[in-house]
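Sequence in, structure out. Go.
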Amino acid sequence: MTLMRERFSSQVPAVCRYSVVVPMHNEEGNVEILASRLRATMDQLGEPYELIFVDDGSTDGTFAALAQMAERSPEVRVVKLKRNFGQTPALAAGFDNAAGEIIIAMDGDLRSDPADIPLLLDKLDEGYDVANGWRRQRSHEGFLRTFPSRVANRWLSRLSGVDIQDFGTTFKAYRREVVEHFRLYGEQHRYLPVIAAWQGAKIAEVPVSDSPRKFGKSHYGFGRTLRVPFDLLALKFLQHYRTAPLRLFGIPGALSFLAGLAALGYAFIRPLVSGGSPFAGEGAAVVVAAVLLLAALQLLGMGLLGELMALSYLGPQREPSYRVERIVTGADELIAQAAARAKAAGSQ
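Output:
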């Protein structure tokens, strides 16, 4: 029984070479097919790996299918979230539970082909830190999907300074040291190459295949396109002011303060020059000065509050953007069963 325990525990080492992270939401029909394709590709690499499936609050049989697969597959780990948090928190949960030196992320809708994983890994072997999949051929999606996507990707590239052509795909490979510094929230999964570039990572783009969805329903609609302008604005803000928001609010606050002082000085001095009392007949100037000074105080206050929020964001006390309900690991289950059998045999 001791030999059985060692055999099962060695199949998923504490630190393995590759971790494949797949967030899934209502993808029951894709579970077995995707897992089979992933195993076929990863087995050919000849190095230890793990498959981490994150169930993001599915309402169909996705978790049941994943849990059954994990019980018979030591390389599979299933992270079940308490509710549907979204793709970015689901990816964060997968990254946090990954043990691999190289972490590969992809969607669970079968549009990305696991057979392309070696292409991403080859690019990392060339010395890059992030290999970003590029869905070059997307004609099957139609003009109304591909044209807005091309425009958004072009603007994202210009604003961020990261020269890639496909920000939207999840299909990427990362070195572990890049991923461990990610603190993801909102919908930042689309900006992972940008965040990595801010950290000094070297990024390369690799053409990969893209197929129409066969099972399930797409989670991306036209509403996502409408959010692109706000995403661009958020990206620009985060790029320049995410760790120093006082610079954003401080400059207009200082200008407003100086303008308020100038208006106040005008209201005080002008009546004196005319031989009158200070502020006499300058009610409008006094009101303008008061408004400008109050605006300055508000802007500076917002900047200081932003600094406090930045400290909270950067500090270790920041809470994760997801909550885990349970984790199902096939290797642990098999080890526990073997230990129980060994204990029972020893007591006889």
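Check: The CA atoms of residues 152 and 229 lie 8 Å apart. The chain has 13 helices and eight strands.
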